[in-house]
Amino acid sequence: MSSNITLYTWPTPNGIKASITLEELGLPYKTEGINISTNVQKEDWFLKINPNGRIPALLDGSQRVFESGAIMIYLVDKYDTDRKISYAPGTPEHVEQTSWLMFQMGGLGPMQGQANHFRLFAGARSDYGINRYIEETKRLYSVLESRLKESPYLAGSKYTIADIANFSWVRNAPVSLEIDLSEFPALKKWVDEINQRPAVQKGVDVPQTGRTPEQLAELFQNCRAKIDGMTNSDKH
Ligand SMILES: N[C@@H](CCC(=O)N[C@@H](CS)C(=O)NCC(=O)O)C(=O)O
């Protein structure tokens, strides 16, 4: 199928949801690397594509799409005619697919994002913030664990965008937040399996930054050490 897609992205948990989806669908696309540490995502030209000033965002011809969940839904609605990574609207599995996608968009992403903020990037140390958001992230992992004990994939027997969305956040938790996935064996098995998919291996590295997994692990370790070295600023 013809497309004229440009993906504006950076290899972060939200960014790779879009690139993995494009890779799984085998769609040709151009990539514009948006290095979020330089705040290019707040520039006027970019705000015309995503008024929220965040990645990922996508242009398909003159059609803009922003919010990673909306991008995934747009791509499967328009291009997944073979239902490779989605269920057909009107089926019970499609309702499950939407439910688990929204679980990620409204729950796991925001909560783990706050855990990342307090544990890795905050300007002041808050043990309350660290504990609250890491515990909430783990609670959400236990919800995924329960589902994956009863079903091979989140929406049913098929790998879908619901899996891509949740996987994109869970995969890095051991190195970023030191969450031990062996506490969640069904979740760990699912992550390990999805990690093997060729489209996932390509999609997690878009755009290529040249940073190795070891360098990323060291970066996270340094971030945690910086926070640990601060005095806890919570008021009691
Ligand atoms: N709900 C949005 C969240 C997007 C988001 O937070 N993107 C982060 C990277 S993972 C970002 O652009 N951060 C830079 C910033 O906040 O300026 C989505 O799912 O697309």
TrEMBL record:
Domain GST N-terminal residue range list: 2-83
Domain GST C-terminal per the UniProt entry, residue ranges: 90-219
InterPro entries associated with the record: Glutathione-S-Trfase_C-like (IPR010987), Glutathione-S-Trfase_C_sf (IPR036282), Glutathione_S-Trfase (IPR040079), Glutathione_S-Trfase_N (IPR004045), GST_C (IPR004046), Thioredoxin-like_sf (IPR036249)
UniProt cross-references to Gene3D superfamilies, sorted A to Z: 1.20.1050.10, Glutaredoxin
Classification via PANTHER family: GLUTATHIONE S-TRANSFERASE GSTA, GLUTATHIONE S-TRANSFERASE-RELATED
Similarity section: Belongs to the GST superfamily.
Name of this protein: Glutathione S-transferase
Organism of this sequence: Penicillium arizonense
